[in-house]
Design goal:
This protein has about 210 residues and is α+β, with helices and mostly antiparallel strands. The protein is built from 6 helices and 11 strands. Helices cover about 30% and strands about 20% of the residues. The strands form 3 sheets. It has a 6-stranded antiparallel beta sheet with strand order 1-2-3-10-5-8, covered by helices on one side. The chain binds zinc ion (ZN).
Length: about 210
């Protein structure tokens, strides 16, 4: 059972359909793993419906594409990516090991989801057990959902289903736990800003990648 959940404001935006697709994908995938938030979203939807009933003129946003019920139904299908819950699994299309992984640094690779125009903002991260990510801050909000394995940083320990929330005030250096590969879905409002020396080198490499069109 997840211990770290998305902010209530995200669940409310998700329930009334106003959340951006990238964050909605992360929240919906968390819901597949978290009965607590599924109940919360259902309660928010009921409250929203009651408000609409009281005031016929109230404009209620469209229902989310992915209801908890639909998520649960589809998650029962057995596929190569059975460990990846819907709706994320549908966005991948291929088994995790066969995705177009891009090395970021020793022990860490990423797969930007092609469905999103700002590709770097929505990606899978794979971090080898025990690896430390470079120290970094964010220009916007970063949400990280753990799909497999675990990691920890100064704010706590995150295991499967947990959502870590980092705002621009957080300068952190997550470290993957031992045992198995740490697989996460990360959604960022703005690119992360690396801070340490290694970070400066990787930032430079990223700029070069952009210049050569990768
Ligand atoms: Zn939750």
């Amino acid at each position: 059972m997840p211990q770290h959940h998305p902010d209530e404001s995200l669940l409310i935006e998700y329930a009334n359909g106003s959340l951006h697709e990238a964050k909605a994908l992360l929240v919906a995938t968390h819901l597949a793993l978290c009965p607590v938030c599924r109940r919360a979203v259902a309660a928010i939807e009921v409250a929203g419906a009651a408000l609409a009933f009281e005031d016929a003129a109230a404009q209620v946003g469209p229902m989310p594409d992915v209801t908890a019920a639909a998520v649960e139904t589809r998650a029962t299908a057995v596929e190569p990516n059975a460990q990846i819950p819907e709706p994320l699994r549908g966005y991948l299309g291929r088994p995790v090991p066969e995705l177009g992984w891009v090395p970021v640094m020793a022990g860490m690779k990423e797969y930007p989801l092609p469905a999103f125009a700002r590709r770097s903002s929505v990606r899978l991260l794979a971090i080898e057990p025990g690896r430390r990510m470079p120290r970094h801050t964010h220009e916007g909000l970063e949400l990280t959902l753990v799909l497999q394995g675990n990691f920890r940083d100064a704010s706590g320990a995150y295991a499967k289903g947990d959502v870590a929330t980092a705002d621009p005030s957080v300068d952190h250096q997550p470290q993957a736990g031992g045992g198995e590969l740490c697989l996460c879905l990360a959604v960022e409002d703005a690119p992360l800003k690396l801070t340490g020396l290694k970070g400066a080198l990787i930032n430079a490499a990223g700029s070069v990648r952009k210049l050569v069109g990768r």
